[in-house]
Amino acid sequence: MLVLILLVVQACTPQTETEVLAIRSVLEEQVEAWNEGDIEGYMQGYHRSEGLIFTGGKNKTMGWDDALERYLKSYPSKAAMGELKFEDLHIELVTPGAAFSTGEWWLYRTNDTLQGRFTLVWRKVDGNWVIIADHSS
């Protein structure tokens, strides 16, 4: 029982809260960049690596450059990008340098509204939290 209590106390440390807030901040910066029509700014939340993985539906994209290209092709204008909103966010630190988050995304556009769920895998690289895997549906 004492071990369980210690684990719960450790999980709620100020350090954990700080890391969760840092990850939330990256997500907020992504929403801001997207809503300004800045796809490259949005992509700053992702690990700039060939190992970056995007999956959704039946598709898989590997690498930061390929993901950027796919976004630019899919959203050629600010109107096509619409307004992004994240809701129902859950962020959990797994280790001091790894986390995952889940949530719901909404994309409001003039003629339609899109919506789905996501799971993100995070890694702390050079002191910054970045997404290393994104599964969105």
Care to describe what's here?
It is a single chain. The protein is of the alpha+beta class. Helices cover 37% and strands 39% of the residues. The protein is built from five helices and six strands, in the order αααββααββββ. The chain has a six-stranded mixed β-sheet with strand order 2-1-6-5-4-3. The protein is globular.
Compose a concise summary of this entry.
It contains five helices and six strands; from the N terminus they run H-H-H-E-E-H-H-E-E-E-E. The chain is of the alpha+beta class and 137 residues long. The chain has one domain (2-136): Nuclear Transport Factor 2, Chain: A (Roll).
**Total domain modules:** 1
Name the CATH architecture. Answer: Roll
Give the neighbour order of strands across the main sheet: 2-1-6-5-4-3
| Distance between the amino and carboxyl termini | 40 Å
Instruction: Catalogue the unreliable spans.
Output: 2-10
SSE order in H/E notation? Answer: HHHEEHHEEEE
Helix percent band? 25-40%
The overall pLDDT average reads 91
